[in-house]
C-alpha cells in the first residue's frame, strides 16, 4: 500500500465509526457497537500486506478489520442498519459482520474464538499448496483465553501460514492489563511456542505494516506463524453506551497522552513532511467524508428483510429449522 | 448386495470410501492415527498424516480448526473420544460452527461431521464420562443422530458426509461391537425407522435404548401386549411423521432415553407429540429416563439410575392403564 492509501483507509474507518456511533445514539442502529477509533493503524497496517484471498478472523471490535480488508461500507452500513442488502443479510449485525468472499471469516462475539477458525483456514491453505495466509486479530483480553493458547500450539506445531495479531489497547472492557496479565509483555508468550514475535507501535501504520510484511513473507515461504503485538489505545469507550453509563476507569491524562499520538494525524504529518500537500490531504478527508455520507444514504434507502425470512439460512441444506416457517 | 459387518467396520468402510473418492475429506481428533476407538483404523496408512491429523488435547482448538477448514473448502471429520468433550468444545460447536451459516446470512456452509465415538454409558466409567448430552446440541440447532444398527451406522455416516451442514453422530459404546447386515443405503437425515412393528403401544427409544425396547417388546408379548419400537435415528430433524403413524395405530407412547430427564430429548418429544397430534393419544406420554444426577460409580447405584427392561416394562404398563379420553 503506497502513498496516501493507508491514510485513506484509516480515515474511512474513523469516519465510518464516528457515523456508526451517531447512528447508535439516534437509534438508527440498534444495540451497541464497539468502535475501533484510535486503533486504525493496526488493521490497516496488517491488511496492507494481505491479498483478497488471504483470510482474517476478527473480534467484537471488528468494523476496522473488515474495512481494512476491503469490505464495502455500503453493505456494512446496511447490515448495521438492519437491511436486507446488508453484508450478512441482516442476520449478523456488528459483532458477526463477515464477507467470506474477501476472506473475512467473521467478527466474533466470543473473545479469541476466531483464532482456531483462522488456524483452520491456514491449514487449508497449507494442504492445498497455495501461498495464502491467514491472520487472526484479538486483544489483550483475548490473549488470556485458553483457546488462543491451544491455537498458538497448533499453529506452531503444524507450521501454519498464519499471523497472530494482538491489539493491546490496555483494557479488557474496563479491566486494565495491569490487573490481569502475569507478564506485561504479551508478545513474550509466543516464545513458549517457539514462535517469532515482536512488539510494535500500534499507532504507527508503517511500523505495523513493516512487521506484517516480515510475518507474511515468512508465512508465505513456509516458515510458519508469527506473533505481532501492537501497542494501541481506543479513544472511545468499550462500547457506544459507555459514556451514557458514565463508566470511568481511565484517566483523562492517559487519554490525552495517547490522543497526541493519533495514528491518523501521525501518518498525515509524515506525508506532509514527505511532500504531500495540505490541499491533497484535505481533499482526501473530504473525499472520505463524502463517500461515507453517500454510503449511509444508500444503505438507508435499502429494504428491510421480511419477517417471513427470519429463519432462513439456518442450514445450507435448506432444512427448515424447528419452530420456524416450514 | 448386503453383507454382515461389525458396526465399527461399517463406519470404517464408509470413511475409506469417502476419503478415497474425495481429497477434501480429512480425519482429525485425539489418538486417531493409532485409532484408539477403532473407527479410524488404518486411515493414516491409506491416506497419510496430512489427511489423518492427530490433534493435541485441545478440543476447542481443533474443533475451531475444523470450522476454518470447512469454510475454506475442506470437509473435515472430527472424532471425540469421550462424550463430555462436547462440553469443552461447546462454544466452537454451537456458537461458531453451527451458527456460521445463519449469522453470515448464508455466505458460507460448514460441512463438518463430528463423531462422538464410544458415547454414553459403560459400566464403571462414572460421572464425567457417561452423559448423553445430545439434547444440548438439538437445543442449539445442530443436526444430530444416533445410529444403533450397523446398517444405520454406515447409512447415517453417508448422510452426514454428504450434508453441507455440521452434523454430529453419537456412536454408542454399547453398539460399537455389534454386527449386522449392511445394505449400502443412505439413511437420510431426519428419517427414523420402525425397529419392530406392533399394535398396542409405541415405544420411541433413543440410541441403545432401541435394543432395550426390543427386549421389553419380547417380554410384553408374553403378556399379550404388542409393542411397536420406533428408532428415530435422528434427533434433529426428528421424524414426527413416522411417530404419528405409529401413535395413530397405538394411541399410546413411551419415550425411553438414557439421559437426564429435565429438558431432555424425551421431554421435547413428549411436548411435541401433545402439541402436534393430541387427538391421536389415548393416554399421556410416559417418559423413562435417568434421574437428574451424574452417573454414580458403584454397580448397585449405577443400575439404580439407568433404564432397564423391568423399568421399561413398568412404564409400558403404566401407559397402557391410563386413559386420557382425548381421542375423538
CATH topology of the largest domain in chain B: Rossmann fold
Number of strands of chain A: 7
> Looking at this structure, what is the CATH superfamily of chain A?
Thiamin diphosphate (ThDP)-binding fold, Pyr/PP domains
Order of helices and strands of chain A: HHEHHHEHEEEEHEHHH
Number of domains of chain B: 2
Descriptors for this entry?
heterodimer, A: 326 residues, alpha/beta, Rossmann fold, 5-stranded parallel β-sheet, two-stranded antiparallel ribbon, 10 helices, 10% strand, globular, B: 328 residues, 2 domains, 7-stranded mixed β-sheet, 5-stranded mixed β-sheet, 14 strands, 19% strand
What can you see in these coordinates?
The complex is a heterodimer of chains A (326) and B (328). Chain A is of the alpha/beta class. Chain A has helices spanning 5-25, 40-47, 63-68, 73-80, 114-127, 146-157, 205-220, 252-259, 263-273, 278-300; strands at residues 55-57, 134-139, 162-168, 171-172, 175-176, 197-201, 226-231. Chain A is 39% helix and 10% strand. Chain A is globular. Chain B folds into 2 domains: 3-182, Thiamin diphosphate (ThDP)-binding fold, Pyr/PP domains (Rossmann fold); 193-321, Rossmann fold. In chain B, strands 3-2-4-5-7-6-12 form a 7-stranded mixed beta sheet, with helices on both faces. Chain B is globular and about 60 Å long. The chains are: A alpha/beta (326), B alpha/beta (328). At the A-B interface, helix 5 and helix 6 of A face helix 3 and helix 5 of B.
